[in-house]
Amino acid sequence: MVNIKTLKQLRQQTCISIALCKKALEQSNNDLIKAKALLRAWGVENVKDKMQRSTSQGAIFSYVHHNKKIASIIEILSETDFVSNNDEFQKLGKELSMQIASIPTEKVQDLMNQEYIRDSSKKISDLLQEAILKFGENIKIGRFLRWELGE
């Protein structure tokens, strides 16, 4: 039997559907750490299937550093405008635009391999995989630009 308190905690920490959280907790005997590991493992399989889907919606995000000398803009694509209007998607866009301003890169693949500035245990590709699992839709980085004063 799944512990409701643990289920709520796992759902809050991962933002993954209650059904998947419940399944992970059942298979891990209510062990939060093992359940998270299961969700990550399942996510990789689910993400691969979803990554083939078309992304014709999305949003554009920007960031200007506090010193006003560095700025970035990024296009993040999703399958539906329902997802692109979601608060978590908006947060992802802000984080990725800050990432681009913080660490110069020119190619999407290079960006995907970067360590996430807020959590060095994750790469940007991990963030996108987590988002795909959360939303149940394919999410891609379309294009991005970074400007630095004087370049």
How would you sum up this structure in a few lines?
This protein is an alpha+beta fold and 151 residues long. It has two domains: 4-50, Helicase, Ruva Protein, domain 3; 57-148, Elongation factor Ts, dimerisation domain (Tetrahydropterin Synthase, Chain A), CATH 3.30.479.20. The protein has helices spanning 4-14, 18-27, 32-50, 81-84, 87-102, 108-113, 124-135; strands at 57-64, 70-78, 115-116, 119-123, 139-148.
Core attributes:
5 strands; 151 residues; three-stranded antiparallel beta sheet; 52% helix; alpha+beta; two-stranded antiparallel ribbon; Tetrahydropterin Synthase, Chain A; Helicase, Ruva Protein, domain 3; elongated; 23% strand
Task: Explain what you see.
This protein is α+β, with helices and mostly antiparallel strands. It has two domains: 4-50, Ubiquitin-associated (UBA) domain (Helicase, Ruva Protein, domain 3), CATH 1.10.8.10; 57-148, 2-Layer Sandwich (Tetrahydropterin Synthase, Chain A). The protein contains seven helices and five strands, in the order αααββαααββαβ. The strands form two sheets. A three-stranded antiparallel beta sheet has the order 1-2-5. Strands 3-4 form a two-stranded antiparallel sheet. Strand 1 and strand 2 form a beta hairpin. Helix 1 packs across helix 2 (18-27) and helix 2 packs across helix 3 (32-50).
- Number of DSSP-assigned strands: 5
CATH superfamily of the largest domain: Elongation factor Ts, dimerisation domain
End-to-end distance:
60 Å
Which outline best applies? elongated
Number of helices: 7
